[in-house]
Amino acid sequence: MIARVAVDIPLPHLDRLFDYSITESQTADVRPGVRVRVRFAGRLRDGYVVEVTDRTEITTKLAALSKVVSPTPVLSPAQVELIRAVADHYAGTFADVVRLAVPPRHAGTENADQVSWPLPVTDEMPQGGLIGYPDGDTFLTGLSNGQPLRSYWQVSPRFVADAAGVDDWSRGFTQATVATLRAGRGVIIVVPDHRDLVKVRDGLGAVIGLGAIAELHSDLGTAARYRNYLAIIRGQAKVVIGTRPAVYAPVSDLGLICLWDDGDDLHAEPHAPYPHARDVVALRAGSEQSALLLAGHGRTAEIQAWCERGWLHPIELTAAQMRHGCAAVRAAADSDLALQRDPQGSRTRLPRLVFETIRAGLAAGPVLIQVPRAGYLPVLACQQCRSPVRCPVCQGPVQLHRDGNRRRLDCAWCGRIITDWRCPVCGSRELRAPVIGSQRTAEELGRAFPGIVVRESSGDRVIDEIGQQPALVVATPGAEPPASHGYAAAVLLDASRLLERPDLRAAEEALRRWLNAVALVRPGTDGGTVCVVGPAQVSPIQALVRLDAARHAERELADRAEARYPPAVRFITVTGPSGALNELVELLGPDCGADLLGPVELNQPPAIGQEETLWRLSLRAPLASGAELTAKVKAALAVRSARKMAGALRVRVDPAQL
Question: pTM for the full model?
Answer without folding.
Answer: 0.92
